[in-house]
Design brief:
- The chain has 189 residues and is an alpha+beta fold.
- The protein is 16% helix and 33% strand.
- It is built from two helices and eleven strands.
- The strands form two sheets. Strands 2, 3, 4, 5, 6, 7, 9, 10 and 11 form a nine-stranded antiparallel β-sheet that branches. Strands 1-8 form a two-stranded parallel ribbon.
- It is globular and about 45 Å long.
- The termini are close together.
């Protein structure tokens, strides 16, 4: 599978375009097969639908994109892709948000903290192979577009969750919860 770079934003329209672009690249290789295709798009995403708890003092935040949540994905034969995002704001500090979600993410494996796309602390990669750089050998790459700020990650390179802090001029803490499923690498293609 060739390397693909996708940018995750909370805009449902942008996510839909990304999914269709990825599908288009895959469909060319699978013409004249009996594979089925499923596409979905949904704006009703909450922290619980991402498998994470709701931060106690937070509420959905739309910002400039006018969307606070998105769930977009497709299945084409054995290839499965899904991105779910939900944006929030709170008057709690960034450290309080990070501490809260560090504990919540631990149920999915080791928790990796990243800042500016680099690991913070001794953990450079999880036992499952998840890194801050999103470079997983021949796996599809994902640029979560939050590498300029703090992130927590947990899961595997194919299925993982991200809690990403966004810059805010209001004094409130803005953060995005993300769940990603990306296709596994297939070295035979």
């Amino acid at each position: 599978m060739s390397t693909r770079i996708l940018t995750v934003r909370s805009s449902l329209a942008f996510a839909a375009i990304s999914v269709f672009a990825l599908f288009g690249a895959t469909a060319v290789r699978a013409q004249n097969t009996n594979m089925s295709l499923e596409l979905h798009a949904n704006e009703n995403v909450s922290a619980s639908s991402l498998g994470l708890p709701h931060f106690p003092t937070s509420h959905p935040y739309k910002g400039e994109s006018k969307d606070s949540a998105a769930d977009v994905g497709f299945t084409f034969g054995s290839v499965h892709f899904r991105v779910m995002t939900s944006r929030y704001e709170t008057n709690a500090s960034e450290d309080q948000v990070i501490d809260f979600y560090r504990h919540a993410l631990a149920r999915y494996g080791e928790v990796l903290e990243c800042e500016h796309g680099k690991p913070v602390g001794a953990l450079k990669a999880t036992k499952e192979g998840l890194t801050c750089s999103d470079s997983h050998g021949q796996h599809s790459h994902l640029n979560a577009d939050y590498d300029s700020h703090r992130q927590l990650r947990s899961g595997t390179p194919e299925r993982f969750r991200v809690v990403a802090l966004e810059p805010s001029e209001s004094g409130d803490t803005h953060f995005v919860l993300v769940y990603l499923e990306v296709p596994k690498s297939d070295d035979s293609h």
